[in-house]
Amino acid sequence: MTDRVALIDYGAGNLRSVANALRAAGAGHVERTADPDFVARADRIVLPGVGAFGACAAALCGVDGMVDALEQRVRRDGVPFLGICVGMQLLADIGEEHGHHQGLGWVPGRVAALDPTDPMARVPHMGWNAISAPRAHSLIAPGEGYFLHGYHFVAADEADVIAASDHGGPIV
Hints:
Strand order of the largest sheet: 2-1-3-4
Strand content: 25-35%
Helix content: 10-25%
Number of helices: 5
Shape: globular
């Protein structure tokens, strides 16, 4: 039996591209879903996100039962989880984009505007950057990643960071 991958559809992600990428990476059954019951049975969960933190948080919380299903399956049952872009940022306590907005609070920290110390570093940050791991981790291989963002995750505890890049200062 193939793994059931729940690709959360809460109106804030490029679901077709993410589903195609997951399949190309060898994912089993990828289901785009807004059904908390499917999420509660999924073997793997992916939370994409495109847009402003507050709007994405409100949209996710607006899907009846979804946050509870995510809490149960990811936090309590420990199924593999991938947050992409704002989907990763929603793991923070707070997002500071256009005010202060409550995140899921799974990883202590906040999402703040990029404020590079290098005046040549443009915001939004867009393009390829080297990715480094502060310590060896099975999920991270040194290389490059593509970035398009004006906000970044500021972890409360550096021990929670397994990969970083530099854009006029460190970014998670």
